[in-house]
Design brief:
The chain is mainly alpha-helical. The protein contains seven helices and three strands; from the N terminus they run H-H-E-H-H-E-E-H-H-H. A three-stranded antiparallel sheet has the order 1-3-2.
């Protein structure tokens, strides 16, 4: 017979393995990103801008699933590092447009090896590249589903 509190066991939670895997994976990125003098959240913003070019803050937040009050201080720190620039939209001054600087573009050339370096760091006999790709696709479905629940 199942104990009524067994649902509260850490091993029975969806959120804990997601949290732990995210934290551990982010930690693996640290040495690669420290070479570029950026943090993981800054790397995420850069990847979005490298892919889409100039975007407004709300669009970046939607893409990264980040709230405005989380994103704004992050963008301010990136602007201080001269990686990005922020300016008010000429069409709608309520919107802040974010674009890469030359320094932000330069980081892209340095960061191009990070995905492969990360894959090499985590791929071994216990975890194949195919398993990683399958897991990534499953996580994307989980994110879509959880995002709809909000």
């Amino acid at each position: 017979m199942e104990d009524k509190f067994s649902k509260l066991l850490l091993d029975n939670q969806l959120c804990f393995p997601l949290y732990a895997a995210s934290r551990l994976a982010t930690k693996i990125y640290e040495p690669f990103l420290s070479e570029l003098d950026i943090t993981y959240p800054q790397y995420l913003v850069l990847m979005v801008l490298w892919e889409h070019g100039e975007m407004n803050v709300n669009e970046i937040g939607q893409r990264l699933l980040l709230e405005h009050n989380t994103l704004t201080p992050l963008l301010k720190r990136m602007e201080l590092k001269k990686i990005i620039q922020r300016k008010r939209s000429e069409i709608d001054e309520r919107k802040v447009i974010v674009s890469l600087t030359l320094q932000g573009e330069k980081i892209k050339n340095q960061a191009v090896t990070i995905p492969e370096r990360l894959a090499n760091a985590i791929t071994n006999q216990d975890l194949t590249k195919e398993e990683i790709l399958t897991f990534q696709k499953t996580l994307q479905k989980v994110i879509l589903t959880l995002n709809k629940c909000q």
